[in-house]
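Justification of computing resources. Each target in the renewal requires a structure prediction run like the one illustrated here; the chain below, 317 residues long, is used simply to show the kind of job we budget for.
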Amino acid sequence: MNVIDEIKSQILLDAGTNEFEVLEFFLDEQDGGKVVHRYFGMNVAKVMEVIESPKMEQKEHSQDPCFMGTIPLRNHIVPIIDLSVWLKINRHRSPFENVIITEFSRTVQGFIVSGVTEIHRFMWKDLIPPNEFINKLGTNVVIGTLIKDDHFIQLLDLEHIISVLNPESIQHKWQTSVVAKKNYMAVVAEDSSTIRMMLKKSLEHSNFRTNILNNGEDAFICLKEMADMAVKEGKDIRDFVDIVIADIEMPKLDGFTLTKRIKEDKELKKLPVILYSSIITDELIHKGKSVGADCQVCKPDIDKMAGYAIELIERPQ
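Resulting structure tokens:
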């Protein structure tokens, strides 16, 4: 068992606590005559292991300058990405760099970084959304910013990076042949602009109307407003919304906590909830069930989302 596996095995978060763990790493930026640490983070659940950099050089024939080639790693051929090139950071080279090997959305890839610091536990409410924080990297790649001691940690949207580097990996994921007989309404909570686009296309193609929110907190506020309106007008909540679809990892309020609040609410508990993530594991499935999720989907199966939603909506009450 490698160090990351040992740490992950010790992290047993209860579902609905709105907590998550971040692997903090840094890129050394050459800024004039000095070297500056730029701190970043990724969800530790997406990390397979950390290895020493194999000192790879950019391939002249590469379609993208950040692609450094591939390495064999057990049963995988792993593409290696120079993260500093992708982020347009003038990285100061060091003989002691690392590669973070990640696995999500059924893909394995490695990211070259200057070094890895440690794993931190945060509350999702601690994550400052990019629209509330000035960020020169842009909002598409940064999920949000965390404050740790005397510095900032920028949490990266790895799915967005891979989708830009390999557009073919997502261009067909939203396509579906399923069409609902009725025009259903879905409230969707998702912080990634890439996934929001795919879900919107997929659901609307399948005869859904969508109200897509950037995080779980905004989604819950929206749902409570619908519930209040339903009570005021003497109607059922299902006259306003048919299903809730939520990412597990989100700023302010994660999918587990959102689901828990929905299922504990007198009016909202009638609504079916689908949770999805790029890292659906046995442990996550168990957590989803513990908060009352009606279905759990892996992000590569987004094309099946509408089918699952229709099945849940139309099941006997």
